[in-house]
């Protein structure tokens, strides 16, 4: 479901609030993972670690929102989800304009806060632009290799 940016912002804030309350209400079972050092602590405690992330970045109205969502526990952001948003284009678009100026600012802020960047569901050009502009490693957590899934892409910016 696609939301307008302002609506997505409110829905996402509420979503993170619910997850944080859920984790806080069940400390015997769950721990919010805020960084790599938490993984060993979660394992030692015999708990389930939860990494909070979003499968789109349409909730980011301005660059400072990255800091706000990081404080709420967001540690991973997928920049697009199939379609276009203010950061770039998704893999199901008939065009791929690449990473936008706003997208480049968000990538830089994500790098400085330590929030992981995921380009799954991004278009090829957008993905390559993100990888080029990021100063930190970029994740591709769940995507298909074109050689193994020929014809599965829509936009081909190399033509």
Task: Describe the overall structure.
The chain is 39% helix and 11% strand. The chain is α/β, with parallel strands linked by helices and 159 residues long. The protein has a 3-stranded parallel sheet. Strands 1-2 form a two-stranded parallel ribbon.
* Physical arrangement of strands within the biggest beta sheet: 3-4-5
Considering DSSP H and I runs of 4 or more, what fraction of the residues is helical?
25-40%
- Please, how many helices? 5
Q: Biggest sheet, in brief?
A: 3 strands, parallel
Weakly predicted, low-confidence segments: none
How are helices and strands ordered from N to C? HEHEEHEHEH
Q: How many β-strand runs? A: 5
Q: What value does the Rg take, in angstroms?
A: 17 Å
How would you state the average pLDDT, rounded? 91
In terms of structural class, how would the helical and strand content be classed? Answer: alpha/beta
The fraction of residues in strands falls at 5-15%
Instruction: Tell me the span between the first and last alpha carbons.
Output: 31 Å
**In one word, what is the shape?**
globular
Using brief descriptors, characterize the structure shown:
159 residues; 5 helices; 39% helix
Helices and strands in order:
Blueprint: H1 5-25, E1 30-32, H2 36-45, E2 48-50, E3 52-54, H3 64-71, E4 74-78, H4 101-113, E5 116-118, H5 124-133
Parallel strand pairs: 1-2, 3-4, 4-5
């Amino acid at each position: 479901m696609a939301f307008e940016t302002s609506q997505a912002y409110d829905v996402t804030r509420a979503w993170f609030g619910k997850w944080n309350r859920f984790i806080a209400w069940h400390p015997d079972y769950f721990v919010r993972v805020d960084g790599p050092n938490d993984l060993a602590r979660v394992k030692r405690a015999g708990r389930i670690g939860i990494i909070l992330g979003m499968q789109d970045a349409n909730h980011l109205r301005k660059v400072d929102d990255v800091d706000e969502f990081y404080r709420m526990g967001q540690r991973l952001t997928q920049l697009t989800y199939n379609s276009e948003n203010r950061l770039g284009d998704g893999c199901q678009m008939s065009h791929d304009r690449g990473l936008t100026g706003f997208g480049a600012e968000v990538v830089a802020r994500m790098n400085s806060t330590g929030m992981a960047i995921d380009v799954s569901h991004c278009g090829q050009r957008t993905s390559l632009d993100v990888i080029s502009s990021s100063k930190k490693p970029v994740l591709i957590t769940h995507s298909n290799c074109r050689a193994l899934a020929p014809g599965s892409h829509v936009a081909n910016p190399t033509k």
